[in-house]
TrEMBL record:
Highest taxon above the source species: Bacteria
Coiled-coil zones: 141-168
Classification of source organism: Bacteria, Pseudomonadati, Pseudomonadota, Betaproteobacteria, Neisseriales
Name this polypeptide is given: Uncharacterized protein
Entry annotated with the keyword Coiled coil: yes
Transmembrane domains' residue ranges: 12-33, 109-130
Swiss-Prot/TrEMBL keywords: Coiled coil, Membrane, Transmembrane, Transmembrane helix
Length: 379
């Protein structure tokens, strides 16, 4: 019951508000119209007043304005005339520039044509030269190819020859190698003659020959001897003398190289130390058999016959017979050698007398030497 009454009161309140709104709405619209009309009238009045004032101002300023406008228009006319004149001048100038540019372009084309023609001519000449050069190179290459073919054929032939040489001439190849190695070892003596001690054992068992090797050995020997006074020396002197007697005895027996002869004689304490073998003694006896030069005979007696090698061979049954026969032939051919050997035998006999008084193994050694010399001297 209470709820229904509240709803009714609420509805009545809302309805009453709507009635009030509808009643006041026309009044509000009329008031708004009156206010708008009043404002519009005020605006029109103000505008009319302002327009009237401005109209009077315009009437007062109009002559001045027209005068200024005429002046401006006159100025515009002058400017237009000047502009037309400038345009005409510019057109004339443009025509002149165009003519100049056309002439320049035409001249440029002419010059370019000339340059192009010259360049074409140069290109043609260079082309011809290049063509000739290429042709020359081509011919050279062809020639090189032919040369290569020929060389290839030669190499193949040489290879075949080498193969055949290796297969069929082993000894010859070995000898060539030994000859090359000999030259290598001997050439080293040019700079260091003292190095003979390192190579003499190798060289003494080989076959050394050739004038070039002889010059090296001779010069190294003389250079080494020049370092020492007479009868002074170095064991290397004995090594050089051994090689000279072994491979170049004819250089001594000819007697032409006096410098070599004097060096051998003046260095006897060292040159007498050579240990000749029996075959070397026999060969040297044949080489020196016809020597007539006193220095050569002295060298043969002092260095060869009086050498430890000869004394040793005369004390050995297997060698003394051949050595005695070689000395005998030498004595028969050369009386100077006979005389020198007789003198040597006398010295040996004196040594025997000395050692007989003081018995030792050396007594028998000298007795064998004396017997050998006696047999060689006997006819």
């Amino acid at each position: 019951m209470g709820v229904t009454l509240k709803k009714k009161l609420k509805r009545y309140y809302i309805f009453n508000n709507w009635i009030l709104f509808i009643t006041l709405l026309p009044v509000a619209v009329w008031l708004a119209y009156v206010a708008a009309n009043w404002q519009l009238s005020s605006s029109i009045k103000n505008y009319s007043t302002k327009t009237h004032v401005e109209t009077r101002i315009v009437k007062a300023e109009l002559p001045k304005y027209l005068s200024e406008s005429y002046t401006i228009l006159s100025s515009f006319d002058n400017r237009i005339d000047k502009l037309e004149t400038a345009i005409i001048n510019q057109q004339n100038l443009s025509e002149q520039q165009f003519t100049a540019l056309y002439s320049l372009y035409s001249n440029s084309l002419t010059i370019f044509s000339i340059i192009l023609g010259v360049f074409g001519l140069i290109s043609a000449v260079l082309g011809i030269l290049l063509s000739n050069k290429v042709n020359e190179r081509y011919q050279e290459i062809k020639q090189i190819e032919r040369t290569i073919e020929n060389k290839t054929f030669e190499v193949e032939k040489l290879k075949a020859d080498i193969d055949a040489l290796i297969n069929n001439k082993n000894t010859e190849i070995f000898n060539k190698f030994i000859e090359y190695d000999n030259s290598r070892l001997i050439n080293a003596l040019k700079e260091n003659p003292d190095n003979i001690g390192n190579v003499v054992a190798i060289l003494s068992v080989r076959n050394i020959k050739g004038e070039n090797n002889w010059k090296i050995i001779r010069n190294a020997f003389l250079e080494l001897c020049s370092r020492f006074k007479e009868n002074m020396g170095h064991p290397a002197i004995s090594s050089y003398a051994s090689l000279i007697f072994q491979f170049y005895p004819n250089k001594i027996s000819s007697g032409k190289d006096t410098e070599l002869l004097h060096a051998l004689i003046n260095r006897r304490p060292w040159t007498q130390q050579i240990g000749f073998f029996s075959n070397e003694l026999i060969h040297l006896a044949k080489v020196f058999a016809l020597a007539q030069n006193d220095d050569v005979v002295t060298i043969f007696i002092e260095i060869v016959v009086k050498s430890p090698g000869c004394s040793r061979c005369l004390n050995m049954d297997q060698y003394k017979g051949d050595v005695i026969n070689a000395l005998k032939e030498c004595i028969l051919k050369n009386n100077k050698i006979r005389i020198e050997i007789e003198k040597y035998k006398e010295l040996v006999d004196k040594q025997i007398e000395l050692y007989v008084k003081n018995p030792s193994i050396l007594a028998e050694h000298y007795q064998n030497i004396a017997k050998g010399l006696q047999e060689a001297l006997s006819n």
